[in-house]
Amino acid sequence: MKYSIREDGGTEIRKRQKPYTKKCESEYCELWLKRNKSILDRLLELRSSIICLQEFWVANEELVGMYEKRLGDAGYVTYKLARTNNRGDGLLTAVQQNHFHVLNYRECLFNDIGDRVAQLFHVELLARPGSQSIELGIEILFVNTHLIFPHDSTCCFLRLQQVYKILQVIESYCHEYELPPVPIILCGDWNGSKKGNVCKFLLSQGFVSSYDFAHNYTGDGEETYEWVSHCNHRGDICAVDFIWLFNPNKSRKPLKQSFLEALIGNVNVRSHFGGHAIAYADHGGRSTRVWQSIIEV
């Protein structure tokens, strides 16, 4: 399962008084401790084989210790990864050791303006008849990530780049270890709806949304969903968290070709001072020019 838990430093407590004041939950130990104990209770109650958390408060040693202790006691091995530039939050992934054996783990640092990161895991499914673990030879790659929030139109372009980097890392890893086609699972807060070009890019690569499949959502007609994933920092109820699945028996377009098609779906290419500039149009009709030279493909 994946879970976006909101870093406590970013959770606001607003007081209706004059002068207007705004404080963060992180300033009140009893509040963030109570909320995270409740989150842990729910996670352990669900007993998922893999837990992917985003907006995890990695800078709080007491909080990290609480998660590692309780998840460890329940049989999970945990991996945390902070966002770059000391943002305070990041990712935490927990793998149930009775269900999966972690063969390898890699960290992906995007090193962009959003300071976003991703975790790549190579795991093998286990069977446990009695107390003995048996490796079944079924291997899976899965990713935990949190893409940049679309504050403006340029962020949508960055989200495409971030997903492209993730798929490049997966492709490179499979080539390095000469892996046969394996199932791939992408978990995270994608900060974009099914109608966006990031999701269309993943669909073009053969991925399917597990939530849409479970609710028999086809994407036709109005942008309505049978599910919502969270309430964002603006108070909007949205469906932007996905678990994407790739069946290794499906054929895939070349990654670079698929990325360029997604890019063209977002941009208008025009000449500018003898070179080429890319103008990205957002829903409001505004555009931001991004020089073609920054596109590394």
How much of the sequence is in beta strands?
25-35%
Number of helices: 6
- CATH top level class name: Alpha Beta
- CATH fold topology: Deoxyribonuclease I, Chain A
Q: Globular, elongated, flat, extended or rod-shaped: what is the shape?
A: globular
Q: Say which CATH homologous superfamily is assigned.
A: Endonuclease/exonuclease/phosphatase
Number of domains: 1
Structural class: alpha+beta
Share in helix: 25-40%
Q: Which architecture name does CATH use?
A: 4-Layer Sandwich
The major sheet is characterized as: 6 strands, mixed
Distance between the termini: 32 Å
Mean pLDDT: 77
Please give the order of strands in the largest beta sheet: 7-8-9-10-14-11
Helix and strand run? EEEHEHEEEEEHEHEHEEEHEEE
Overview of the molecule:
Helix content is about 25%, strand content about 35%. The radius of gyration is 20 Å and the shape is globular. It is built from six helices and 17 strands. It has about 300 residues and is an alpha+beta fold. The chain starts with a strand and ends in a 6-residue tail after the last strand. Mean pLDDT is about 75; it is low at about 10-20 and about 270-295. The relative contact order is 0.10. It has one domain: 4-Layer Sandwich (Deoxyribonuclease I, Chain A), CATH 3.60.10. This is Endonuclease/exonuclease/phosphatase domain-containing protein. GO terms for molecular function: 3'-5'-RNA exonuclease activity. InterPro entries: CCR4/nocturin_mRNA_transcr, Endo/exonu/phosph_ase_sf.
